[in-house]
Design a protein that fits this description.
The structure is a homotetramer. The first copy, chain A, is of the alpha+beta class. Chain A has a single domain, classed as Urate Oxidase, CATH 3.10.270.10. In chain A, about 25% of the residues lie in helices and about 40% in strands. Chain A is built from six helices and eleven strands. In chain A, strands 1, 2, 3, 4, 5, 6, 9, 10 and 11 form a nine-stranded antiparallel beta sheet that branches. In chain A, a hairpin with a 4-residue loop joins strand 4 and strand 5. In chain A, helix 1 packs antiparallel against helix 2 and helix 4 crosses helix 6. Chain A starts with about 20 loop residues before the first strand and ends with a strand. The relative contact order of chain A is 0.12. The mean pLDDT of chain A is about 95.
Chain lengths: ~270, ~270, ~270, ~270
């Protein structure tokens, strides 16, 4: 490990006497332009918030923070299920570390067509790609948070007319199964579809009146509690052999309260 | 203006050659425990985020930031329409300034009783007390943000059943009219009542099923656009002689979209 | 104004009896992929948070929210000082409104080279492009928020060694002067340069040790209060004939406090 | 489990055919006024953001959300290491659940005296009290986030004068050891002290110039990396027999970057 300028002392590489390993040392809240891959395999440019870290053995006083940035810039802003392991291996190598982690949060957009008029418009979804590499294995986790409409089954059943409904957010986090040479590939759009099937109705950016009529009645016809949302999603994720394990989180921004209702359900497709 | 330690140079009081006045100089994002007054005149303890500033004449290099804190602590955490002018006068005096400003944002709680069962529970509302004093007059502005349910008139009208509804937030900002010796007094609870009357239904923290049935149908019976919410509130605020001017802002967290609908309406009760 | 489906009632176009105009009605917190223009005239793709609104005359019950999205999508995600007036005119036209507003907030990235090693890395800056059009004139305002290092002149002067310093944010908001056929053009990079010249030292994403040594001493050699930052920036903005008026806001995330110090200074280059 | 009104159907209690248990179902982002206990045993009123949840067996369609609020209000807003287990037991009982969780986030204030002048002022710290109860044991975790000053050892060593420093935040999360009849008691103030000893200098709300001189030189005399902060804190927490396990997280809002540096270190005092 040669310092960038041999004339300046390398404090970080000096020995530390306390004998305490550190689980994670790195940078966080780094904003960076990245490119992910859309459903047609084309690069989609977006803006990310990134954290990267390594495990630091007890004998070293500090890590070299600038190297995280060097590794990142060497990969030319491409962040996919293929480049994530490569970035992790470079981090371990360049920072001389047994374990490296990365978390990349970004907004992805899908074009959605209104259900009756077909009018197209884009809806943004928050995604997180994260990974850990420790020399023995690469662990990857992908998540997407999808806005949906949820309509309360209880409110519908007990009221003579109407039913409270609200915007809800479904977060689906999956660990793709390992396969020779990498991991199973799952499109962001596939996870969005699971989330939308689990709520009362999808949300859209652009709805004409014929569309608004459609989604209003669609939601009324498919009432769900947050409990139903996570169970619906879990049932779909359990049926997907490409997924090793998952966590689903549903949050309803209740229209009759100023707090939220939520449910969390984790599952494994192994054993 | 004597420095706290005459042996240390007072850089802030040194002359500045650029000849540029500064509109506001001060501290922001200061968290502080405060007491406001509830509807029965009792102190209500809460947590505030405070900014305070003064106008700085061109001849001075800087202001003395520590004095903002000294003034604040001298008023023993009481922030009301009576103490706000006193704090402003002290800021002008202690910081030797022609103009002083303060903004105090905090959460206030009101106990609300469920409409049928009568079950009590507290709902939090974001409030901001702000003021400016320039030696000629004290200008005070109070605002409160109230969660409400809104149900879409268009969705209800065009659909065979159901109607999309959502949590909305109504912010009512009022400038109380001046009167000899101070300003007209307006309870936070009165502004909350205006906001709740302007939506489709109030929100509650605790609703039993009989209550949920009630508010579901109440919302369906009183559909409002964001446009209606601000007009409803404006009509009520215009009828209140204690209010010199006002701004109403309504934001709907649309249940069928991932963006919000909003409306803003300002008015004056003078001429 | 023909509704999208003549068979469904057009509630929004129905008359409103309350006789109250509304200042702004529209959509907010809409996330959208956009392209701005970089210093070399090339499109830079980024993610925006957008609000759009119109003035609503008293005789109409509501506006047609879906049309905001239609106008936006028609401009194919290009948001520049040239397209902003065109979007505003389309909003006025399509929504039959006397006045339209838009606000587009996004992250822009500049590649910065470390001061000694020359190592390149990107730094993100928050920008806001906003505009109003009322048929008589188009008013445009651009702002950029730039992270800088600030080192306290008082701390440096009164201490035997060291000086507290911190990350600060400088927000420069300018209204470009009108000229025949449009507005004066100002690069985001030019405003970033003004902000960086006004602090103690620029910040970088990637600094090797030789660079860290450089910026540490650069900051110590150029101590500034928040008051100095806004005055420094104001002096530069006043000398720029392309700028009609400006507001500078500096916020220091004080390293010796858990609150911030701030200053605000507005100026006009007219008369 | 009798519904609040036998005449209305109890949808939540109806059977669910999917056979999937749910890990957590409950309410989140509930704002509530609470009282914690200060170092002298007196109640300190503050504002909390609360989430509460239960495990839901596969045979039930939903939980009864209103009961979370009923349990909370029954405990009269007192949230301490003594009442937390009682609230959890009531949640399990009232919601007929095998496991209950609660998380209470709030701001706590400590009066700090400036190091030379002795001037007092309050500094706010973010705290989280959380707990889980599953019938076999009650697991409690307390955390506090403390602002500190950190000064970079590398910058100090390699520069002829000055050293970059910044505001940092140290989060200390501890699991108190169980003892007969409850858990070991640890004051928030004790954790704050650990955090402040681990940085370069404490932060204060109010510093006169003599104090500013003192903390400037104190920070310069005690340079620390984020790595040092978590190791310093870990060494102190390991020596405290009342603590079963802990996690320390340090985040530096680097003054020379627009991203943060961070470190995380977990440890156990058992075996």
């Amino acid at each position: 490990m040669s310092p960038d300028n041999p004339a300046l002392p390398d404090i970080q590489s000096s020995p530390d006497p306390r004998g305490i390993d550190i689980d994670q040392v790195g940078v966080s809240d780094l904003r960076y332009p990245i490119r992910v891959t859309d459903r047609d395999g084309r690069p989609f440019p977006t803006v990310a918030r990134i954290s990267m870290s390594v495990r630091l053995p007890h004998q070293f006083k500090g890590t070299h923070m600038s190297r995280f940035l060097e590794v990142l810039s060497r990969h030319e802003e491409e962040v996919t299920s293929r480049t994530l392991p490569a970035i992790l291996h470079d981090l371990r190598d360049r920072l001389d570390a047994a374990e490296a982690r990365i978390e990349v949060a970004f907004t992805y957009f899908v074009t959605k067509h209104a259900p009756v008029s077909g009018a197209p418009a884009k809806v943004g979804c928050d995604c997180v790609f994260s990974g850990t590499s420790n020399g023995k294995e690469d662990d990857l986790v992908f998540s997407v948070t999808v806005p949906v409409t949820t309509l309360c089954p209880c409110s519908r059943e007990i009221s003579e007319y109407g039913a409270h409904n609200q915007r809800g957010y479904v977060t689906i986090e999956v660990r793709p199964r390992k396969k020779p040479g990498g991991h199973e590939f799952i499109l962001i759009e596939e996870l969005i579809e699971v989330a939308e099937k689990s709520g009362s109705a999808p949300v859209y950016a652009l709805l004409k009146r014929t569309d608004e009529r459609h989604v209003t009645m669609q939601a009324y016809d498919h009432p769900v509690f947050v409990e139903d949302v996570v169970r619906n999603a879990a049932a779909l994720l359990r049926a997907d052999a490409r997924i090793a394990s998952f966590t689903v989180r549903a949050v309803n921004h209740e229209s009759i309260h100023d707090h939220n209702a939520f449910a969390v359900l984790s599952g494994s497709n192994d054993g």
